[in-house]
Amino acid sequence: HTIFGIEGTAAGSLLTNGTANASVLTSVGNTNLEFGTNQVKRFTIAASTGAATFSSQLKVSNTTGSALDMLVLETGFNNPSGNKSIIWKDVTNTLGRISVSYDAGTGSTMRFGSLYNGGYQSSDLLTIASTGAATFSSIVGIGMTPITANGGLQIGNSGGAAPQIYYTNGTAAAYFGVDAYGTNVFGGGTTGAYNYIFVTNSTTRLTL
User: Fold this and answer.
1) Which whole-number Å values give the CA distances from 147 to 33, 150, 154, in the listed order?
2) Among 88, 71, 80, 72, which Cα is nearest to 109's?
3) What is the pTM of this model?
4) CB atoms within 10 A of CB 73
């Protein structure tokens, strides 16, 4: 059976039963709102802050198949604002973080970071601006595990088509990469004539 009430006889309670972890509503005092099953507390709303704590997973389920905002995080923002974050923790320390900040002039910014790496971290690893521009704080590997010593953008392939840097405007395309054997560097274009320009110190040194 299900019991509704609060533990003890706190004044102003809606119902009182004396059974642990079964409180439903209190109107006065600094008493947490708690829900429990099988004599175990499952869900607590802190009286002082309203913060909700679940003792197990939080599952949001919908079976309609239609578009739906399954989880909405709503908060006030200053201009500019601090980071509003989703955080993964090992009880006390942060293991990972996704944050969003807001600035009326530059738009929203999303940051991924604070990943544990031989110690607890607080730095941003990936920043995505409102324009879609992404900035990585370290090396980037595409199709491969990056080789830290080499740094920068690293593109690899364990098989299949040769890895390339490829640009297209929807019609014409230009590319730069290596052949299928990974031994020869090449470049080309699918439509029209493309010049290959090598530049140092903002000055063209060689045009092909």
Assistant:
1) 52, 6, 8
2) 80
3) 0.65
4) 8
Please report where in the chains the tokens 């002039």 appear, as a residue.
105
The tens digit of pLDDT for each residue in 89-145 reads 998 899 999 999 999 888 999 999 999 999 999 999 999 999 999 998 888 877 777
Task: Determine the Cα–Cα distance for residues 177 and 166; give it in Å rounded to an integer.
Answer: 8
Q: Are 81 and 75 in contact (CB under 8 A)?
A: no
Question: What is the residue type of 62?
Answer: N
Q: Say if CB 42 and CB 23 are below 8 A apart.
A: no
Give, in degrees to the nearest 5, the angle at Cα 41 between 39 and 42.
120
Q: Which amino acid is present at 194?
A: Y
Q: State mean pLDDT over 62-71.
A: 89
Q: Where are the beta strands (DSSP E) in the chain?
A: 33-37, 40-45, 52-54, 84-89, 94-103, 107-113, 124-128, 134-136, 140-142, 153-155, 164-168, 173-178, 185-189, 197-200, 203-207
Mean pLDDT confidence for 180-204: 68
Q: Is 127 helix (H, G, I), strand (E, B) or coil?
A: strand
